[in-house]
C-alpha cells in the first residue's frame, strides 16, 4: 500500500531543519571562544604598545659627599635643596636660623682689630682697607705709641706716618685719611670720636662700614658691617643678589632685630674668613651646609675641606695680637715675627 502524498513531503523538511539550526549550547560555545580570542588579541596589543613606550629615566643620584662631621665635631646635615622660589617668610626663618647656628659655632666672635679706645679703633678700621686685620694689628702698636691722641696724629710729620703704616699698603692715601680725621676730631669734636653715624661719615676716609664698626664695638650702638666677607656670604645664602653695600645693609637690618646686628656681623665675617672662603669654600666642613643654597661650590669632601680651614678652625694663629680672654685660638705674632 503506497504512503499518503502529504506525509512524504513533510518528513524531509523537518530533518533538514534540524541539521541547519544550531542548538543553544553551540551558540554559547562559539561566543565564548570569540570573546577569549578577542581578549588575547587585546592583551597582546597592549603588551606590544607598552614595550615600545620609552621608560622614565631613574632619578639622578647626587655625587656630592655629605660631610662626616663639621668643624664643630657635630654630624653634618644634608645640604639645602631649593626646588622653588623662597617666600619672604621662609627666607627670614632660614636667615635667623643661620644666625642662631653661627652663634653656637662662634660664641667668641669679636672685632678682629686690636684697640683700646674709640680713636684707636677708628684709625685701625681706616687702615684695614685693602689689607688684613692681622697686618693692621701688627702695624698699629708703633703708630699709637708715637701718636696716642688725635692731636698728636694731626700734628705729625706725614712722611713719618707713611713709614709707620707702610705695611698696610696704600700708605700715602691712608696717611692723608688718618691725619685728616685726626685734625677733624681735634677741630670739630674736641679731640673725641663722635658717637653718631651722621658725624662719623663726615670724617675723612670714613664711610658707613667704618662708622658701623666704631659704633657697634666702641659705643655699643647696633650696626651692620658690610665688608667683602659679609656681602659674599649673604649672596651665597640667597638673602639678596645685590652688590650695593647700603642696599645689603638695609635688607639685613629688615630681617633681624636691632639687638642682633653687631654680633651677626661678627659671626658672618668670622665664618667668611675661616670656612666660607671666596675662592674655595670648605663646604664639607661647614656646620650650616644644610641651610646653604650654594653648597657644592667648594670642596665637599670632609677630609679635604678640613685642610682648608683657617685661623683657630685650622689650628692656626688668629688675627689679633691681643685677643679677648675667651678666644680659643693662638694670638697672632708681632710684625717682626710674621
Automatic annotation (TrEMBL):
CDD domains xrefs: ENDO3c
Catalytic activity reported: 2'-deoxyribonucleotide-(2'-deoxyribose 5'-phosphate)-2'-deoxyribonucleotide-DNA = a 3'-end 2'-deoxyribonucleotide-(2,3-dehydro-2,3-deoxyribose 5'-phosphate)-DNA + a 5'-end 5'-phospho-2'-deoxyribonucleoside-DNA + H(+)
EC number of the protein: 4.2.99.18
Alphabetized SMART domains for the sequence: ENDO3c, FES
Key words, A-Z: 4Fe-4S, DNA damage, DNA repair, DNA-binding, Endonuclease, Glycosidase, Hydrolase, Iron, Iron-sulfur, Lyase, Metal-binding, Nuclease
Pfam families: EndIII_4Fe-2S, HHH, HhH-GPD
InterPro entries (UniProt xref): DNA_glycosylase, Endonuclease-III-like_CS2, Endonuclease3_FeS-loop_motif, Endouclease-III_FeS-bd_BS, HhH-GPD_domain, HhH_base_excis_C, HhH_motif, Nth
Cofactors: [4Fe-4S] cluster
Family of the protein in this entry: Belongs to the Nth/MutY family.
Protein name: Endonuclease III
Gene name linked to the record: nth
Amino acid at each position: 500500500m503506497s504512503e499518503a502524498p502529504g506525509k512524504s513531503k513533510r518528513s524531509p523538511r523537518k530533518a533538514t531543519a534540524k541539521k541547519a539550526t544550531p542548538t543553544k549550547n553551540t551558540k554559547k560555545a562559539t561566543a565564548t571562544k570569540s570573546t577569549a580570542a578577542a581578549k588575547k588579541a587585546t592583551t597582546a596589543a597592549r603588551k606590544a604598545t607598552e614595550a615600545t613606550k620609552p621608560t622614565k629615566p631613574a632619578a639622578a643620584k647626587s655625587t656630592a659627599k655629605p660631610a662626616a662631621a663639621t668643624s664643630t665635631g657635630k654630624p653634618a646635615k644634608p645640604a639645602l635643596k631649593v626646588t622653588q622660589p623662597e617666600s619672604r617668610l621662609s627666607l627670614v626663618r632660614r636667615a635667623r636660623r643661620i644666625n642662631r647656628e653661627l652663634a653656637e659655632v662662634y660664641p667668641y666672635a669679636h672685632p678682629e682689630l686690636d684697640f683700646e679706645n674709640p680713636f684707636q679703633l677708628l684709625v685701625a678700621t681706616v687702615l684695614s682697607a685693602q689689607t688684613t686685620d692681622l697686618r693692621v694689628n701688627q702695624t698699629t702698636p708703633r703708630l699709637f705709641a708715637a701718636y696716642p691722641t688725635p692731636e698728636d696724629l694731626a700734628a705729625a710729620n706725614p712722611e713719618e706716618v707713611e713709614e709707620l703704616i707702610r705695611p698696610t699698603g696704600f700708605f700715602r692715601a691712608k696717611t692723608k685719611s688718618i691725619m685728616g680725621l685726626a685734625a677733624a676730631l681735634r677741630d670739630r669734636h674736641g679731640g673725641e670720636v663722635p658717637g653718631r653715624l651722621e658725624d662719623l661719615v663726615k670724617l675723612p676716609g670714613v664711610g658707613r662700614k667704618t662708622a658701623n664698626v666704631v659704633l657697634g664695638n666702641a659705643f655699643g650702638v647696633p650696626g651692620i658691617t658690610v665688608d667683602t666677607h659679609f656681602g659674599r656670604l649673604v649672596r651665597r645664602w640667597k638673602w639678596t643678589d645685590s652688590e650695593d653695600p647700603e642696599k645689603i645693609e638695609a635688607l639685613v637690618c629688615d630681617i633681624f632685630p636691632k639687638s642682633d646686628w653687631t654680633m651677626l656681623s661678627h659671626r658672618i665675617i668670622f665664618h667668611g674668613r675661616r670656612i666660607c672662603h671666596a675662592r674655595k669654600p670648605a663646604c664639607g666642613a661647614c656646620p650650616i651646609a644644610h641651610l646653604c643654597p650654594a653648597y657644592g661650590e667648594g670642596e665637599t669632601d670632609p677630609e679635604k675641606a678640613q685642610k682648608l680651614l683657617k685661623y683657630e678652625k685650622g689650628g692656626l694663629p688668629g688675627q689679633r695680637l691681643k685677643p679677648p680672654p675667651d678666644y680659643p685660638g693662638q694670638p697672632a705674632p708681632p710684625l717682626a715675627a710674621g
